[in-house]
């Protein structure tokens, strides 16, 4: 009787995953690309940096060489102690469309990226804003063109894809990129069915009007992280949010080189999720539980050899639809190589997430300094 209940639970969790992967994530995975209609609306690209001198040297040329008729670059130096400020000052003198914002340490907002971003947003002269991190670079010189093309009278928030560089012969790199692929499939899929819940600051656009209409970051200013996902979770609706995932619109950044660094990064990201809306916390929690218990129940039933042919059939069915859904998403996001290791990587990611959850219960993650 007990094993029969476990079998029913396994079938139930796989059914839940089928709904997620096919009917929710699938709205993105199986979507057809739409033609880009270039916009000429002026836009402000906002970059916030804290001790990012080396990255600024490498990546600023990608920003200043964009093929877009009317854009400014707002460079925010958040009280850096390296050469970041000096570089920004030189760029401001050299380029007429570069504007510098100097942020000094403030006792009330010490080390708070949201405070620095707010100052930059206030200074930006254009209503349309496009955000990228200082350690990122656009995939093409048409990045602004593709992201800005998604703005319209109704669509005032644009969710983009922030990818990570590929490192050959690095299994950790494949894990990081798979987790990024899965996350993107989730937030693109939910946005397409009218329930947007997050975006990534590495590639995100919204209007200044939308920012101030919800009070900016005021509701979560004391939370050190979440300038991207918490803002989107608060401000986005089915009517004002759209997506952009053409290859030209991608941004890339260097991934963590060690498991410890990646683990700490995940801790920071997960710590903000507790402030999502109740529905978003529920749907994310249900998805994770269905993943975790799929493995636990499948292993238990196979160990007892209970109805092993039925169990095996359920397992094969589950991997079939997840592989298809993620495979199509991976093709869109240029991450096809990670799918070769999918079953192994997925297990690793799920139990890392479980470890992150319990670690965050007993200690707080370190944020922007």
TrEMBL record:
InterPro entries: Glyco_trans_2-like, Nucleotide-diphossugar_trans
GO molecular function terms listed in the Swiss-Prot or TrEMBL record: glycosyltransferase activity
Domain (Glycosyltransferase 2-like) ranges: 44-177
Domain of life the protein comes from: Bacteria
Keywords, sorted A to Z: Glycosyltransferase, Membrane, Transferase, Transmembrane, Transmembrane helix
Transmembrane segments: 6-26, 284-304, 310-329, 341-362
Signal peptide feature range: none
E.C. designation(s): 2.4.-.-
Pfam families found in the cross-reference section: Glycos_transf_2
Family statement drawn from the similarity comment of this UniProt entry: Belongs to the glycosyltransferase 2 family.
Protein name (Swiss-Prot/TrEMBL): Glycosyltransferase
Lineage, opening ranks: Bacteria, Pseudomonadati, Bacteroidota, Flavobacteriia, Flavobacteriales
